[in-house]
Design a protein that fits this description.
With 123 residues, the chain is an alpha+beta fold. The chain has one domain: Nuclear Transport Factor 2, Chain: A. It is 22% helix and 38% strand. The protein has three helices and seven strands, in the order βααββαββββ. β4 and β5 form a beta hairpin. α1 runs antiparallel to α2. The longest helix is centred in the N-terminal third of the chain and has 13 residues. It is globular, with a radius of gyration of 14 Å.
């Protein structure tokens, strides 16, 4: 991974990056990694190749992403944390086809599980 710009103080950067890396690893057949990274009710908003907006419940994409086995590598461009919220600007670099590379902006929140346990970062 390349150098990451950290905006302000991000005391939980390693845990934030770990959760986002689960997302990337999910493209290599790791549906369970995608399920760990994202809240079950999380949504995705994307611009497709033609520039049209598409929205979905992100879990509806898990099976397709896990089966794709795209040769993507993560590149953390910037991480910002403000208390219990964070954002990550993430480069997805496809080594098989550079034109199939993209950038994601990911929003995360720190939640307290029920029953109480260790807090968890989720996208």
């Amino acid at each position: 991974m390349t150098e990451t710009t950290v905006v302000g103080d991000a005391p939980e950067i390693e845990e934030i990056k770990r959760v986002v890396q689960l997302y990337v690893d999910g493209f290599q057949g790791g549906r369970e990694k995608l399920e760990e990274a994202f809240h079950k009710d999380a949504w995705i908003f994307v611009l497709d190749a033609e520039g049209a907006l598409a929205t979905d419940l992100i879990s509806d994409r898990f099976e397709r992403w896990a089966k794709s086995r795209r040769a993507v590598k993560s590149r953390f461009i910037a991480v910002t944390q403000a208390g219990e919220v964070a954002s990550v600007l993430l480069g997805f670099d496809n080594s098989d086809n550079l034109e199939d590379s993209w950038v994601d902006v990911i929003a995360l929140i720190l939640i307290e599980p029920s029953p109480p346990a260790q807090p968890v970062w989720l996208s």
